[in-house]
């Protein structure tokens, strides 16, 4: 055994010290002790033997273990002994990898990565330090983390990429080109490797069943199988006589005693499931041979433990595809199966209906003396089916024929030199793979005695198999490297065991490149206990090819074992490069022996045509032999590809007339014709142009922390496809005592180690709590189930790190803005192409009404006086409360008189002069309307303001105060209740009370008339100010003149056909925009009756609005998106109840959502569908469109064609282009027109930069010209330079005379095939989104709503979402509708969705509680408020993930 420090070789050490050193070394490699502890203990052990080097620092001695130059060049101590011949080359040491990882980490300068922050709910609310005052974003905790994140992203890892492939249309995804300097295979074409001939001796029985019959009748007392319990006691030994008689009994019962409607239940060739626990090899073996004797096909599966086991549905698919209807089991096993309420075995998820048969002795019938089974167990018929789970999780049945079964037993007998009456200790699962082939089949052919060690015993006592080898003097043992590893950990203090009886120790997973370290460490310790090095026989197998290769014991004439140290970088390019000089990235592999007797082996290219590989190239190993499986049962398509491969030479000539079977193993043929395996196809991840093996990545992760942060073997690595490439995901279980800092530290180091050793980035690293990963039936992780859970957002990690910035290198290049074509050229271009300029208008106004009436209706105060005089008792307004009761009604005369009182109070009490501004702070109701007209009556300018929220004064009161100040209001009119609120203690804390202007409460003002009602000198005099906070956080007030006010009312009256006999229902906030106009202005102008439903009342009664519409038979109704959402969410399931209460919506002709955004199709459609049951006409729902410069541009109204919907390509939209596509085509986005353009309104589409007119179906800014546009901003708070030209823009070319108002919205006009009311072809306006809201990322324009839609679809727990940018990083805030511990499931899915659908890398994912994203009364997200809250650390997030 090679020791660490060179000088030690000079001192002969006693055996027990060498043993203690070996144990110590193992402890270190396992991470059970620290490096420091190791050095301390080691120095102590050696202190007596190394007096010469006592002064030397032990850590220096340790340094020598880094594999250095060959011993020849090292200065040798004088009396050095020759190394024993079995001394291992240092480079193959199992801890070399750990050293490489540690060295790699040391090379990294610790790049500080921002640590994700988790909620400490208690801390956040109590700790003073944690609170950052608002408005100090620069120094906040969040900003410093973002700064850290930006620093880590400053050096993006991006290989030079030359070419692109076109993904459909706009987005050119970069496709990584092979690096010209990468290693390429240089060897000649490999030759097919031929195994030795299968020496079919006359002593071999003609078939397996013939062997069973022979031993059962001639050697009935010979032991066949010994079963052990969990304490290691032999509970039963099955003799060959018993096996034969019980199998016969079972065969007879199956064939003769099972009937279905007097027909036999089973016929030859039927498949039967075998459901036996791992602790019962005896009953399994009886069942297996019983089926063979009855000519039935056994399908062994795992015992289902719950109704929803990991992979249970896939097992159901297997049983279904094999047509299994009967399951065999034992009494004890059946009792433990999950039961239905009837007491029957439960139906498992995805399983076909099964009949369960218990096969314990008492349930079977003894066959008559003269009964003999007619089984012919030779030929091409299927003997048994073994299950196999693929990388993607699907479970298929691999069919093995009788001929293959016999050939496999013969080949194994020859290769392993098995002889009669030998004892074999089997630690493997006897239901499949090597455990079945050696321990149930080949053993019976050779009359061997198998001692079966159950998994539960191995867990309780990992040494049990060694003790049994000892006790039974076993000649052969069948183990996995995991079993060797476990026994190493447990062997301390066990002195009396000896492995000298073993001539064969088969390592069944020798194909796993990392088994070499277990073999070495095991030999290291047990050589002193009789284990001979040549006994170790690694082998390679696959479900399709069965045993592929096995190392022969030397007495059978095999060549000596070989090993190779390969360059990982070479392997990732598929070539074999021996790595002579010491490098970090190496993989040490051992041979898995020679090809099987009677087999031909070759290696072919993994993808495409199966060309033979070159001698120094890694490919998929293929086998041609009579001992391979024959098909995937019932699945012809995939069978052909795997079982009937014809390898060809470089010239394309087939190398054989017999097909080969693909093994799924990656490897090459080495010296002495030995087979080497470097990985499995199932674990292969192709990232860019390089290949990586999941097992290698696992090993690197495990080597990172010798302190054992994660449990060994509780780690899964797999790849997921994101954006046309494999992305590596690593999921590990962390120890329960690990702190969050430890976790993050470990994760960062794993990322660095994998990056350094494999030169590949990990896309996502997730840690889950201990014992939460789904387990495979016999230990280990069920990787495909982990992957499934990851993709479904069901993994529930406790820490997540996602690194899209480093991994995703195939994003298209950021768009470079091309020099724009000039406006004149555009017009010429459009003319040449025959395209019309995009211009549209509503009906003309001037011809519709005689000028007298128009003049009479020029000022709203005049209209109200005229109505009060001519129709005094006509009802204008009805106000409802939450119960549906009318709380107040107002006739024309009542409104006129209330307005007079308000005007008198303003002049006498507040002493205001004409032109003074007055803030109206009222809840939605009639008082607000009266106060508005009161202001107009005395020449004051009203400003409607939403009152502060009593439960949330600190945030709502400052906005009220700001509007009052910015609008320069000289007086505040309000109610008594609000007056008290404004003067309350809480209000004083938020706002300085002394700075309010005069506050007048209008609840009890005296009944007074005004001497004369003010009449404006000209229609252009200011009528009112309309203030609103935009979604980007800008407070802007616009000026509405008397002319614009009456033009607005006239336009709406014409579009909606409003007359005094009409009733409309309004459920809107009455403070700004069209909501205000409909609530306060239109009824007075048109004389119709408005049923007012205050939106706050819906909190107490969600059905109030719909009930009102039905009760008052309103043909026209208006609402906001928030109202519609409240109804869709709160009443969706209650339509039947509403119908019983008499709610009937068939009266509605048009239901309009008042909005200043792109129509929300999903919401309006689901609303229409939900309430179709209540009679809501399918085409009634539409949306309006207005903005700050003009509050009503489009509105569906009662005439004109229905709104049309078009589908545009979302990718073209990012480039400011419109490309119409079919519904359902990829990347399609539905846009619906926002109602019809109002009478008197003209719309044109202008280029955002050149300001030239654009053609039909071109995307640009919507400009509007209309008599009811606002005349300008009164003030804009938050962006003072905001722009007079919003109201007085002119085109740079074409019609340069018309004055337009710029809406700030992108959209396009499209002429449709429909005709409008005037008989002309109808022009539809499609609004795409606000220019202010749009995000400029990677040179493209994104609309937040599109990204948010993708995020909301990513996982069912996403209740709401908002995105914004911060220092070029995309921040996604997600409201979690679910358990806090599931929050982290969203991080990866959100990142994936945005990458896939928008080609954007998410920088930060913030997960918050429902209701945190601020939403205004129109139902719009206040993204800038959210951003400010995030940067000031005020959101109390559940989790913040900073994507690396």
UniProtKB/TrEMBL annotation:
DMAP1-binding domain sequence ranges: 9-127
InterPro entries assigned: AMP-bd_C, AMP-bd_C_sf, AMP-dep_synth/lig_dom, ANL_N_sf, Dip2-like_dom, DMAP1-bd
Family annotation (Pfam families): AMP-binding, AMP-dom_DIP2-like, DMAP_binding
Region (Disordered): 61-98
Compositionally biased spans, kind Basic and acidic residues: 86-98
Highest taxon, organism lineage: Eukaryota
Protein family per UniProt: Belongs to the DIP2 family.
PANTHER family: DISCO-INTERACTING PROTEIN 2 DIP2 -RELATED, DISCO-INTERACTING PROTEIN 2 HOMOLOG A
Protein name from the UniProt record: Disco-interacting protein 2 homolog A isoform X6
């Amino acid at each position: 055994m090679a020791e660490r420090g060179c000088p030690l070789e000079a001192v002969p050490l006693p055996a027990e010290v060498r043993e203690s050193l070996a144990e110590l070394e193992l402890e270190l490699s396992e991470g059970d002790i620290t490096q420091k502890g190791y050095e301390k203990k080691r120095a102590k052990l050696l202190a007596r033997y190394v007096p010469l080097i006592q002064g030397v620092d032990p850590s220096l001695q340790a340094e020598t273990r880094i594999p250095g130059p060959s011993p020849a060049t090292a200065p040798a101590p004088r009396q050095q002994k020759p190394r024993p011949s079995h001394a291992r080359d240092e480079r193959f040491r199992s801890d070399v990898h750990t050293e490489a990882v540690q060295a790699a980490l040391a090379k990294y300068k610790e790049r500080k990565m921002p640590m994700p922050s988790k909620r400490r709910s208690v801390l956040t609310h109590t700790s003073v330090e944690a609170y950052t005052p608002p408005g100090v974003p620069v120094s906040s905790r969040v900003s410093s983390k973002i700064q850290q994140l930006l620093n880590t992203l400053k050096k993006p890892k991006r290989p030079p990429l030359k070419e692109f492939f076109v993904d459909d249309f706009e987005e050119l995804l970069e496709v990584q080109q092979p690096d010209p300097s990468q290693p390429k295979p240089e060897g000649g074409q490999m030759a097919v490797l031929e195994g030795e001939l299968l020496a079919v001796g006359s002593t071999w029985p003609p078939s397996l069943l013939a062997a069973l019959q022979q031993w059962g009748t001639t050697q009935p007392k010979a032991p066949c199988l010994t079963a052990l319990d969990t304490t290691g006691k032999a509970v039963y030994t099955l003799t060959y006589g018993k096996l034969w008689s019980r199998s016969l009994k079972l065969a007879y019962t199956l064939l003769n005693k099972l009937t279905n409607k007097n027909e036999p239940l089973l016929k030859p060739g039927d498949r039967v499931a075998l459901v036996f626990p791992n602790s019962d090899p005896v009953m399994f073996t009886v069942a297996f041979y019983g089926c063979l004797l009855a000519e039935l096909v056994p399908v062994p599966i795992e015992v289902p433990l719950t109704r929803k086991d990991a992979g249970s549905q896939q097992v159901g698919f297997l049983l279904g595809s094999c047509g299994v209807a009967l399951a065999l089991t034992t009494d004890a096993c059946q009792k433990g199966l999950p039961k239905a309420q009837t007491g029957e075995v439960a139906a498992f998820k995805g399983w076909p209906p099964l009949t369960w048969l218990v096969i314990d002795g008492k349930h079977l019938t003894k066959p008559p003396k003269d009964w003999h089974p007619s089984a012919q167990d030779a030929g091409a018929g299927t003997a048994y089916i073994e299950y196999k789970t693929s990388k993607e999780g699907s479970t298929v049945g691999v069919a093995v024929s009788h001929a293959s079964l016999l050939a496999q037993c013969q080949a194994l007998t020859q290769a392993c030199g098995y002889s009669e009456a030998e004892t074999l200790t089997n630690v493997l699962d006897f239901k499949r793979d090597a455990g079945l082939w050696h321990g149930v089949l080949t053993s019976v052919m050779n009359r061997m005695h198998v001692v079966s060690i159950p998994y539960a015993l191995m867990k309780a006592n990992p040494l049990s198999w060694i003790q049994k080898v000892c006790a039974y003097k076993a000649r052969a043992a069948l183990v996995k490297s995991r079993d060797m590893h476990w026994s190493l950990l447990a062997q301390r203090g066990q002195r009396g065991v000896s492995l000298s009886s073993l001539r064969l120790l088969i390592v069944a997973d020798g194909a796993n490149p990392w088994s070499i370290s277990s073999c070495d460490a095991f030999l290291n310790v047990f050589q002193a206990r009789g284990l001979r090095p040549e006994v170790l026989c690694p082998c390679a197998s696959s479900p399709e090819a069965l045993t592929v290769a096995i190392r022969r014991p030397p007495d059978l004439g095999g060549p000596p074992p070989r090993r190779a140290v390969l360059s990982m970088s070479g392997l990732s390019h598929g070539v074999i490069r021996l790595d002579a000089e010491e490098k970090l990235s190496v993989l040490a592999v051992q041979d898995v022996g020679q090809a099987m007797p009677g087999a031909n082996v070759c290696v072919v290219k993994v993808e495409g045509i199966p060309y033979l590989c070159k001698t120094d190239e890694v490919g998929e190993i293929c086998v041609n032999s009579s001992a391979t499986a024959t098909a995937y049962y019932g699945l012809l398509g995939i069978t052909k590809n795997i079982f009937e491969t014809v390898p060809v030479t470089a010239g394309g000539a087939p190398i054989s007339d017999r097909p080969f079977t693909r093994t799924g193993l990656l490897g090459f043929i080495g010296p002495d014709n030995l087979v080497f395996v470097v990985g499995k196809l199932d674990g292969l991840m192709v990232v860019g142009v390089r290949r990586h093996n999941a097992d290698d990545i696992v090993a690197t992760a495990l080597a990172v922390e010798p302190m054992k942060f994660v449990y060994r073997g509780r780690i899964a690595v797999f790849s997921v496809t994101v954006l046309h490439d494999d992305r590596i995901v690593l999921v590990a279980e962390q120890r329960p005592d690990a702190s969050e800092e430890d976790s993050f530290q470990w994760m960062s180091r794993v990322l660095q180690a994998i990056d350094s050793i494999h030169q590949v980035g990990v896309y996502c690293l997730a840690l889950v709590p201990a014992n939460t990963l789904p387990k495979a039936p016999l230990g280990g992780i069920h990787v495909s189930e982990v992957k499934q859970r990851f993709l479904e957002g069901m993994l529930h990690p406790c820490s997540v790190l996602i690194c899209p910035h480093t991994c995703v290198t195939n994003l298209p290049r950021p768009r470079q803005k091309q020099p724009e074509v000039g406006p004149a050229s555009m017009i010429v271009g459009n003319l040449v192409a025959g395209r019309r300029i995009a211009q549209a208008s509503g009906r003309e106004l001037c011809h519709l009404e005689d000028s007298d009436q128009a003049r009479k209706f020029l000022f709203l105060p005049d209209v109200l006086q005229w109505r009060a005089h001519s129709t005094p008792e006509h009802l204008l307004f009805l106000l409802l409360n939450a119960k549906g009761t009318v709380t107040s009604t107002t006739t024309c005369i009542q409104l006129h008189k209330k307005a007079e009182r308000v005007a008198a109070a303003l002049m006498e009490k507040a002493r205001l002069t004409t032109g003074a501004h007055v803030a109206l702070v009222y809840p939605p109701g009639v008082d607000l309307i009266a106060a508005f007209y009161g202001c107009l009556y005395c020449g004051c300018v009203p400003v409607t303001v939403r009152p502060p929220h009593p439960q949330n004064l600190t945030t709502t009161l400052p906005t009220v105060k700001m509007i009052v100040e910015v609008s320069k209001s000289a007086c505040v009119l309000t109610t008594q209740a609000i007056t008290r609120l404004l003067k309350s203690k809480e209000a004083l804390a938020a706002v300085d009370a002394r700075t309010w202007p005069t506050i007048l409460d209008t609840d009890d003002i005296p009944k007074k008339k005004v001497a004369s009602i003010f009449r404006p000198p000209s229609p252009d005099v200011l009528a009112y100010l309309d203030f609103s906070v935009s979604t980007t956080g800008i407070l802007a007030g616009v000026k509405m003149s008397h002319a614009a006010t009456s033009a607005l009312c006239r336009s709406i009256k014409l579009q909606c056909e409003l007359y005094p006999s009409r009733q409309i229902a309004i459920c809107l906030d009455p403070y700004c925009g069209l909501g205000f106009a409909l609530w306060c202005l239109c009824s007075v102008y048109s004389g119709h009756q408005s049923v007012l439903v205050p939106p706050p009342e819906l909190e107490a009664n969600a059905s109030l609005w719909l009930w009102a519409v039905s009760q008052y038979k309103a043909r026209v109704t208006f609402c906001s998106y928030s109202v519609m959402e409240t109804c869709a969410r709160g009443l969706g399931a209650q339509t039947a109840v509403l119908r019983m209460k008499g709610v009937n919506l068939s009266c509605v002709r048009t239901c309009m959502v008042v909005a200043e955004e792109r129509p929300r199709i999903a919401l309006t459609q689901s609303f229409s569908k939900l309430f179709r049951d209540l009679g809501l006409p399918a085409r009634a729902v539409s949306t309006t469109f207005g903005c700050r410069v003009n509050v009503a541009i489009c509105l569906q109204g009662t005439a004109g064609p229905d709104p049309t919907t078009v589908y545009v390509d979302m990718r073209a939209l990012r480039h400011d282009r419109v490309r119409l596509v079919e519904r359902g085509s990829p990347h399609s986005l539905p846009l619906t027109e926002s109602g019809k353009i109002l009478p008197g309104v003209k719309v044109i589409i202008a280029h955002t930069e050149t300001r030239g007119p654009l053609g039909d179906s071109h995307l640009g800014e919507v400009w509007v010209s209309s008599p009811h546009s606002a005349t300008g901003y009164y003030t804009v708070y938050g962006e003072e330079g905001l722009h007079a030209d919003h109201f007085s823009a002119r085109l740079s070319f074409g019609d340069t005379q018309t004055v337009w108002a710029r809406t700030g919205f992108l959209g396009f006009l499209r002429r449709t095939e429909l005709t409008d009311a005037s008989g002309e072809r109808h022009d539809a306006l499609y609004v795409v989104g606000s220019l202010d809201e749009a995000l400029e990322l990677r040179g493209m324009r994104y609309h937040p709503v599109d990204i948010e839609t993708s995020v909301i679809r990513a996982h069912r727990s996403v209740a709401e979402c908002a995105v914004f940018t911060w220092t070029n990083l995309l921040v996604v805030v997600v409201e979690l509708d679910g358990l806090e511990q599931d929050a982290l499931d969203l991080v990866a899915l959100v990142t994936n969705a945005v990458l896939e659908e928008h080609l954007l890398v998410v920088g930060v994912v913030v997960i918050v509680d429902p209701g945190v994203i601020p939403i205004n009364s129109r139902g719009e997200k206040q993204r800038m408020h959210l951003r400010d809250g995030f940067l000031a650390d005020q959101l109390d997030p559940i989790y913040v993930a900073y994507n690396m």
